[in-house]
C-alpha cells in the first residue's frame, strides 16, 4: 500500500495539472466570439415589398435579425430634408457629438422666395445614422441599447466594411424610397463631416422646385483604379471606362427627390461596384444631370478645416 505522503503528492500533482488546464482554456472561453457575418441582400423590389408593411406599422421597431434592417429609426412626418449619416458601430462617441451639434430634427425659416411655396419658407430637417454589424455581440448589442435611447439608427443586416459600403448605401436608399414621407432632398454625409445646417437650409430653400439636384464636393477627371489590391479597385467588367464621370465625393452629397427616384431605378439595372460615390455619378449620368459643386458653402470635412 502506498504511504499517505505518496498519495498526497499524487493528489497535489493532479490538482496542479487541472489548474494548468483551467488557466490554459479560460482566456479562450472568455474571449468574445465573432458571429457569422450577417447575410447580405440583393436590392430587389420583391424583398422591399415584403418588408414594407412591417416598416410602416411603426417608423421604428426591432424586426427579425435575418431581415434586411434589424433596427429602424423614428422619423418626423412631412420632412423637406433627410440627412443620412454614415457611421460604424464603434463610433458611439462621435454619434453623441453630432447629436449635440448639427444632427438634430429641426426647422428653419427663410424670408424669401423658395422651392417650398406652401410651407411658409420653412424647411423641416430630419436625420438618422446608418450602420452595419461589427461582428462582436457586445458591440452590436451596445448599438441596440443606443437605439433604444435615441431612436435615430437604421442598422443594415451586413458587416460594415469599405468594400461593402455600396450595398449598405443602396439598401438604405431603398428603405428611404419606401417611407411614407417623401423629403424634397436626401443628403448623405459621413460622420466626420460638419454640416452647416443654416447654410444648407438656405441653399436648398432657394433652389427651384423643378431642378434636379446632385451636389457636393465635385471630383473631376478621376482615373479608375485597376490595381486589385487597392480598396478602390474596379474591374473592367464592372466599369470599362478609363475615367469616372464627375462625381460628388462620398463624405457628402445631396440628391433632390425628383432625381433620387430615378437614380434608385437605375441602380436596379446598372451593376454596382465598390467605389460608392463614383457609382452614384454613373447612375446620375444616365439621367443627363451634371454635379453641382456646393463646396464649403454647406459643409466642412473635419481635418481639412
From TrEMBL:
Keywords: Glycosyltransferase, Golgi apparatus, Membrane, Signal-anchor, Transferase, Transmembrane, Transmembrane helix. GO terms for biological process: protein O-linked glycosylation. The keyword Ion transport does not apply. Its EC number is 2.4.1.-. Coiled coil: none annotated. InterPro entries: Glyco_trans_31 (IPR002659). The chain crosses the membrane at residues 7-25. GO terms for cellular component: Golgi membrane. One of its GO terms (molecular function) is hexosyltransferase activity. Belongs to the glycosyltransferase 31 family. This is Hexosyltransferase.
Amino acid at each position: 500500500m502506498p504511504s499517505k505522503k505518496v498519495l498526497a503528492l499524487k493528489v497535489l500533482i493532479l490538482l496542479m495539472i487541472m489548474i494548468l488546464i483551467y488557466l490554459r482554456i479560460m482566456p479562450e472561453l472568455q474571449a468574445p466570439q465573432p458571429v457569422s457575418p450577417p447575410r447580405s441582400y440583393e436590392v430587389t423590389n420583391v424583398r422591399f415589398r415584403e418588408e414594407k408593411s412591417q416598416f410602416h406599422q411603426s417608423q421604428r421597431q426591432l424586426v427579425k435579425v435575418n431581415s434586411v434592417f434589424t433596427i429602424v429609426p423614428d422619423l418626423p412626418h412631412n420632412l423637406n430634408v433627410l440627412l443620412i449619416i454614415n457611421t460604424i458601430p464603434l463610433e458611439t462617441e462621435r454619434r453623441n457629438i453630432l447629436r449635440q451639434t448639427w444632427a438634430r430634427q429641426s426647422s428653419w425659416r427663410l424670408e424669401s422666395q423658395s422651392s417650398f411655396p406652401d410651407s411658409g419658407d420653412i424647411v423641416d430637417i430630419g436625420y438618422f445614422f446608418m450602420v452595419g454589424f461589427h461582428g462582436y455581440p457586445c458591440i452590436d448589442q451596445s448599438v441596440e441599447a443606443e437605439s433604444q435611447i435615441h431612436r435615430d439608427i437604421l442598422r443594415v443586416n451586413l458587416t460594415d466594411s469599405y468594400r461593402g459600403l455600396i450595398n449598405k448605401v443602396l439598401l438604405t436608399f431603398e428603405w428611404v424610397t419606401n417611407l411614407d414621407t417623401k423629403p424634397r432632398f436626401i443628403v448623405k454625409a459621413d460622420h466626420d463631416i460638419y454640416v452647416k445646417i443654416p447654410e444648407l437650409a438656405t441653399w436648398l430653400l432657394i433652389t427651384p422646385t423643378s431642378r434636379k439636384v446632385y451636389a457636393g464636393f465635385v471630383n473631376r477627371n478621376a482615373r479608375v483604379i485597376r490595381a486589385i489590391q487597392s480598396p478602390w479597385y474596379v474591374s473592367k467588367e464592372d466599369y470599362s471606362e478609363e475615367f469616372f464621370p464627375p462625381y460628388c465625393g462620398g463624405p457628402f452629397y445631396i440628391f433632390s427627390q425628383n432625381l433620387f427616384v430615378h437614380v434608385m431605378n437605375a441602380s436596379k439595372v446598372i451593376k454596382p461596384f465598390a467605389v460608392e460615390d463614383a457609382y452614384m455619378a454613373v447612375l446620375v449620368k444616365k439621367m443627363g444631370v451634371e454635379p453641382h459643386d456646393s463646396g464649403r458653402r454647406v459643409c466642412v470635412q473635419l481635418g481639412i478645416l
